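[job 4471] stage=fold_predict status=RUNNING
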Amino acid sequence: MSDAVETVDTTDETRLTGAQLLEKEGDAAADYLEGLLDIADLDGDIDIDVEGNRAMVSVVEASAGELGHLVGDDGRVLDSLQELTRLAATRETGERSRLMLDVAGHRAARREQLVVIAKEAVAEAQRTAAPVRLDPMSPFERKVVHDAVAEAGLISESEGDEPARRVVIRTA
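[job 4471] inference complete, writing structure tokens
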């Protein structure tokens, strides 16, 4: 008998497909959020979805108004909670997480408002042929506006530095 030790090459580890990674990311986020809700003694249901190439995780209120403090003023607490949830998902998957978190429908409602703002700014840019600069926005908000502007066939770009980074809309 030989005393040689058998080594196993783990560098050829099986990688997850995109869909499997998004599913694992969503599950990790849901586990993290369920633990947080338990610690805070809050009731909420967690929904997981995939939109494009991003996991979407929503905490839905069981009782109206109960989760509002997880959103905070202008969504600041929600932004921080999203980053913590992304870190938990990254730790679980080993891949950088880009998941989006919504609590109590805050982001969904804000998305609707931003689409209206973008359409109004597009109309102004078309009417005046001058660049339209919007108020500073978070990365999530700017992405929604950029998508709405692109859908309208105009050009948009972000300018400035955080936290004063804003979208500028121009005609083509």
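[job 4471] summary: The first helix runs from residue 18 to 40.
[job 4471] exit 0
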